[in-house]
Design goal:
The complex is a heterotetramer of chains A (334), B (253), C (320) and D (280). With 334 residues, chain A is mostly helical. Chain A has helices spanning 3-31, 36-46, 51-64, 70-82, 97-133, 135-150, 153-167, 187-224, 227-234, 239-276, 281-290, 294-322, 324-327. Chain A has a domain at 104-280: Orthogonal Bundle (MetI-like fold). The longest helix of chain C is centred in the middle third of the chain and has 16 residues, at 184-199. In chain C, strand 7, helix 6 and strand 8 form a beta-alpha-beta unit. Classes of the chains: A mainly alpha (334), B alpha/beta (253), C alpha/beta (320), D mainly alpha (280).
């Protein structure tokens, strides 16, 4: 199988996954009795809400075509999705969900992408080094990374917020920038942004390092025992070279591992944002849930799903590019 | 000679993605009662697929096979496996490590067509027949036994079931050469059972069999008595195979 | 003498205990000689291959004895010097499992370059030319250089491995079961190539390890038989086949099957039992339990002694 | 080296992990029945620091943190256990059938698994939880359990696949044994250690996800759990107020529970795969 075919197959597969994921988001709330949609419809009838809320609900029902049969609702839902129309927020009426997410998403991406990348790279380097060195370094590193990775994102986040933000007061404990600061491209504002960025960033990096180091250590130990490593030694290759072999080959499964752990990471970073009151989509989701803002909840869930699928697709493409076995069609695709 | 097994144009193709792999192509041969016939082929020749077809682990995609003149699909599977049994090559995965030897053989008795009032006695006989002391191993788990012992127990199982046809798939390829003869001897002692030996080792096939089938790329390319095949091979592949087998007495490299 | 192995012992040290896989082994290899080492699974022959190159990947550990290569004691080299100055250039190695011996994510060319770079300073162009030449000698096309391990067939992989192992023209080549994973036809091709390289002087001496005695008969000048971590007999190939002095050698030779030499069906000798557990310390003849000739006198330590120009670890002599 | 000896060689990680976990388990399950305190009762003032009356202080509602902690740990572990059992059961069933049966069964099951593997479980959790207004411990466990099976299925499938061509399975077929018998006697025993390991991890996943959902405001509605404690601590900004006793105890409890489970799992892994131990 050529690389092109591999990419095509992966692309189709992700398209299928996309349809299933979005369909689940559509169907699940409608399957459960007492679901938010019928609750909203019920509230409409009871006339309890204020006049402005009444208008909000009406637009919701119109946008989602809730008065139509489910099949048509589904078609409308998919149509809107493709046009990027995610409806209107209840809590911030008449602001559109797409608009809210559009404002929040850059914050989230700017926080998560660097954090995941830095954590992934550092974690893998540490893991490979621990596996190769064994001995004391490994004995210390392993339990520490285990403890760090056992510490949930949010616990680490709260601890860091308390210790560095409140107790020591080194960094601002929450927010994306100071209330008093005016968003602009000035040096002062950048410093302000960075100081707010530090704690959530470091807490995300730390947890990512822990879990990635453990996985990499295991993969590297496996690679260390392979025949080609022994053969390379017997041919007199230097340790440095052999470590680079091991690192590269052990990293391939780590790329797949990263793809799988994306789901967990997303969940973790949503809550990290909440803890630090960071103005990303995690915090918006938190507020939306508190206020029963169903269109916003659904919109955020969809956007995260799509982002994760894209990231996974990208990783798969990279993986296929890096591993010659994929090109030779020798390996089963996981 | 009375035929016990017959294949007519047996075929098996696998679909792997867009690739069609013809593992067995129009295999036709018959096995006489009491005969020791061997199927010789290199890796990828389709010999294991053929064995799996004969054992009904796989369904053929073409052709037919008969046991005692009756189509093999017409037997109920349990009935069929009463008559056709197998031993395999890998002593390390050949037994369930969670059961004792005694229990493993008790489970094998279920399929045998010779119900016995005293199963333990029959197991003892079978184990002793392969030159292992029953008391020594009956409560042991397979991982406590050596490779040679396990291969013997495999044969003890056959002694217990007494099938009409035994398919021996590379029974000695994973054990030491000095133990091989012992295993072969036990196979030869299985009087009354027809044996089909599947092997990559021409020398072994030559040594043990009455008739040989040579398989290449899914096809049976030559059939005959060992002596005849060795002295006057007809198919070029057979010629090459014979040439390539290491020999003690003549120049080989 | 090119290689001299003296009283070499090596153990696998596991939490469950020590397994003495190579026990007090001594032998030598001359320049221009092929030594065959024969033995069955678990006898320690692969461990011996590692130990000769003085690499002891954990949990394998050097216990005692020395390896002299051209008079230099390998013990005096540290790990870095050993790889820089000896391995790959002077002593090279062909592994048993060629299937997994090539780094799956590197092209053959890059592996070859890595080997050159580890030992010498030449231009990439020259490396390429030299690698191409060596492949050519093994009748492999130039295109193989741009391939990954997965794109090669089993027989080709093994030849690529041989090409890589002999890239720097080593003085001694250690081949550990070079054909055990191959079909008979590939086996013959690979062994022929090895013999050709030897005749062409690509390498000067070879130790070839195999469980198939019959292969050694066609390649080796001398054969050492290994049993349960010890050498039990060392001698010239012809003489060993003609008149084995150790009962185990005799059993090994007897178990060789060959088409055309149809023995009476019941007459192939077979040994009962299994080799002893190497975790236990055995102070008497290790073959005692399986030996058809053993008697009371045998239950004591047997030394490897010279008899009729051969080394034998059995005092019974010709009456077996 | 045989299996028994390997398992017998006491693994330190497994032992330490198991001890920590069982101490937490015993305390949190043995104490509540004897306790006169109700974890939900508002006894004191908001955020009272630790004192002899309230060894770990009070929370934002003036509830005793220690009592909450013990009851909350019990709830979290219960949810983790039920969710873990459900996930392991679903994952093992799918994994065993996919891996052992192969062919089309495998294709279908594996595609489903892979799809659910890339859709972040937390999103499905949110979608389900938003729709359910009142969430009991059981409902919570159920939701968590049915969303986290995919990677267990994946891991078990890989192991089952490696068993498929083992010869004892062919022998069992030749003994005339049924599919159910083969799976029960020839496949599952070999997978037992992997299933236990998957279960251990699933329990910790359940506990972690419960807390995550609670912090989003989608936790159990009628009881106190480690997650709801964190939720309230977060909502009332205890960290910024400096009321460390409101969030450190539940945070530490979750960390210790998951740490002990990871440690036990890693110890078991070393027993099953000796090369990780650093000797082989």
């Amino acid at each position: 199988m050529s690389y092109g075919k591999y990419v095509l197959r992966k692309g189709l597969w992700y398209l299928l996954t996309f349809f299933i994921a979005t369909t689940l988001v559509f169907i699940i709330p409608r399957l459960i009795p007492g679901n938010p949609i019928s609750a909203i419809v019920a509230q409409m009838g009871s006339g309890v809400p204020s006049e402005s809320m009444q208008r909000v609900y009406e637009s919701f029902i119109r946008d989602y075509g809730l008065d139509k049969p489910v099949v048509l609702q589904y078609i409308d839902y998919m149509k809107n999705l493709f046009h990027g129309e995610l409806g209107i927020s209840f809590s911030l009426y008449p602001k559109g969900v797409t608009e809210i997410i559009g404002e929040a998403l850059p914050w989230t991406l700017a926080l998560q992408i660097p954090a995941i990348l830095v954590g992934w790279i550092l974690g893998n380097l540490l893991g490979a080094y621990a596996a190769y060195k064994r001995g004391k370094f490994d004995k210390v590193l392993f339990p520490v990374s285990l403890l760090v990775s056992a510490m949930p994102y949010y616990v680490l986040a709260i601890l860091m917020q308390y210790i560095f933000g409140v107790y020591l007061g080194w960094f601002p404990p929450s927010g994306g920038y100071s209330m008093s600061a005016f968003p602009s491209f000035t040096f002062d504002f950048m410093v302000d942004i960075l100081s707010h960025y530090t704690l959530p960033f470091v807490s995300l990096v730390a947890v990512t390092i822990g879990s990635q180091a453990i996985g990499m250590r295991e993969m590297s130990i496996y690679e260390l025992n392979t025949d080609y490593v022994n053969y390379s030694r017997m041919l007199g290759l230097e340790d440095r070279k052999i470590v680079s072999y091991i690192f590269r080959n052990a990293m391939l499964p780590q790329i797949t591992g990263l793809a799988i752990s994306f789901g967990t990471m997303v969940g973790g970073s949503i809550i990290t944002e909440i803890v630090f009151g960071y103005p990303g989509i995690g915090t918006w989701l938190f507020n939306a849930i508190r206020q029963n803002d169903y269109p916003l909840i659904q919109g955020i869930v969809l956007v995260i799903t799509i982002t994760v699928l894209f990231a996974n697709f990208f990783l798969d493409i990279m993986y296929g590019f890096l591993d010659p076995r994929i090109k030779a069609g020798e390996m089963e695709e996981g | 000679m009375e035929k016990i097994f017959e294949c007519v144009d047996l075929c098996k193709t696998f679909q792997k993605g867009r690739k069609r792999i013809e593992a067995v192509k129009n295999a036709s041969f018959s096995i006489g009662k009491g005969e020791i016939i061997s199927l010789v082929g290199e890796s990828g020749s389709g010999k294991s697929t053929l064995a799996n077809l004969m054992l009904r682990f796989l369904k053929p995609t073409g052709g037919e096979a008969f046991l005692d003149g009756k189509k093999i699909e017409d037997y109920r599977k349990k009935e069929y496996w009463k008559k056709v049994q197998a031993i395999f090559q890998d002593p390390f995965s050949s037994f369930n490590d969670f059961f004792s030897v005694k229990k493993i053989l008790e489970r094998a008795i279920k399929i045998s067509s010779y119900p016995s009032p005293d199963p333990e006695e029959r197991i003892r006989e079978a184990v002793e027949a392969v030159n292992i002391r029953y008391e020594e191993i009956c409560d042991k788990k397979p991982f406590e036994l050596s490779g040679g012992q396990k291969q013997r127990l495999m044969i003890a199982r056959i002694y217990l079931i007494k099938p009409e046809l035994l398919i021996a798939d590379e029974p000695t390829s994973m054990i030491d050469a000095v133990l091989r003869a012992g295993i072969l001897e036990l196979l030869l002692k299985l009087r009354g059972t027809t044996i089909m030996l599947i092997t990559h080792d021409l020398a072994l096939a030559y040594y043990i069999s009455d008739r040989m089938l040579i398989m290449q790329n899914g096809r049976i390319v030559e059939e005959g008595e060992p002596q005849k095949i060795l002295e006057a091979p007809e198919h070029p592949y057979t010629k090459k195979l014979i040439e390539d087998v290491p020999k003690l007495s003549e120049e080989w490299l | 003498m090119m290689l001299e192995v003296k009283d070499l012992s090596a153990s696998y040290v596991l939490p469950e205990g020590e397994i003495r896989a190579v026990d007090d082994v001594s032998f030598s290899v001359d320049e221009g000689e092929i030594l065959g080492i024969a033995g069955e699974s678990g006898c320690g022959k692969s461990t011996l291959a590692f130990s000769i190159s003085f690499l002891f990947p954990p949990p394998l550990r050097h216990v005692g004895g020395s390896v002299l290569f051209n008079g230099k004691d390998l013990k005096n080299f540290n790990d870095r010097e050993l790889r820089k100055e000896i391995l790959g250039t002077k002593i090279s190695y062909v592994p048993q499992s060629s299937m997994n011996s090539l780094n799956p994510t590197r092209r053959v060319k890059d592996i070859a370059f890595d080997i050159f770079r580890a030992h010498m300073d030449i231009s990439e162009k020259e490396m390429y030319e030299r690698a191409k030449e060596r492949l050519d000698l093994l009748s492999l096309p130039e295109s193989v250089l741009n391939m990954y391990s997965v794109e090669l067939s089993g027989g080709m992989k093994q030849r690529v491995v041989i090409a890589l192992s002999t890239l720097l023209g080593p003085e001694l080549l250690i081949a550990d079961e070079p054909t055990s994973a191959l079909d008979v036809s590939s086996q013959r091709i690979v062994l022929k190539e090895l013999k050709k390289l030897f005749k062409d002087g690509v390498f000067k001496s070879m130790i070839i390890i195999s469980h198939e005695l019959i292969i050694l008969k066609h390649l080796a000048h001398r054969i050492a038989i290994m049993y349960a971590g010890e050498l039990v007999e060392v001698g010239e190939t012809e003489r060993i086949f003609k008149e084995p002095l150790h009962p185990y050698t005799k059993a090994l030779i007897g178990s060789v099957l060959e088409p055309g030499k149809r023995v009476e069906r019941e007459k192939i000798p077979s040994l009962p039992g299994a080799p002893p557990d190497l975790r236990e310390k055995i102070t008497w003849c290790r073959f005692y339990d399986r030996c058809p000739f053993a008697d009371e006198k045998c239950k004591r330590k047997q030394e490897l002694v010279e008899r009729d120009g051969r080394l034998v670890r059995c005092e019974r002599g010709k009456d077996i | 080296m045989n299996l028994k000896k390997r398992a017998g060689a006491l693994n330190k990680k497994l032992l330490i992990g198991a001890i920590i976990f069982f101490v937490i388990l015993i305390v949190s399950f043995a104490y509540p029945p004897f306790s006169k305190r109700d974890p939900l009762e508002m006894e004191g003032m908001m955020f009272e620091p630790p004192s002899s009356l309230y060894p770990l202080g009070t929370d934002n509602f003036g509830r005793d943190v220690l009592t909450e902690l013990i009851f909350g740990t019990k709830t979290s572990i219960t949810i983790g256990f039920i969710a873990g059992s459900i996930a392991t059961l679903i994952g093992t069933t799918i994994g065993v059938f996919a891996g052992y049966c192969g062919g089309n069964t495998d294709n279908i099951l594996n595609t489903i698994t892979n799809i659910f593997l890339v859709i972040p479980p937390i999103l499905i959790l949110i979608v389900i939880s938003v729709s359910i207004q009142s969430r009991s411990i059981l409902i919570m466990s159920l939701i968590l359990g049915i969303t986290s099976w995919p990677w267990t299925a994946r891991a078990i499938r890989a192991q089952a696949q490696s068993l498929r061509n083992r010869e004892h399975i062919k022998m069992a077929k030749l003994n005339g044994e049924s599919l159910a018998e083969i799976i029960a006697f020839e496949v599952l025993p070999y997978l037992a250690s992997y299933i236990v390991m998957a279960f251990i991890l699933q329990v910790s996943t359940g506990i972690l996800n419960e807390a995550a959902m609670s912090m989003l405001g989608l936790g159990p509605t009628d009881t106190v759990s480690l997650g709801t404690m964190l939720e309230w601590a977060l909502l009332f900004e205890s960290a910024r107020i400096g009321a460390w006793w409101a969030f450190i105890p539940p945070g530490l409890a979750i960390t210790m529970i998951t740490f002990s489970l990871y440690l036990a799992n890693s110890g078991m892994d070393e027993i099953v795969n000796p090369r990780l131990r650093g000797v082989v």
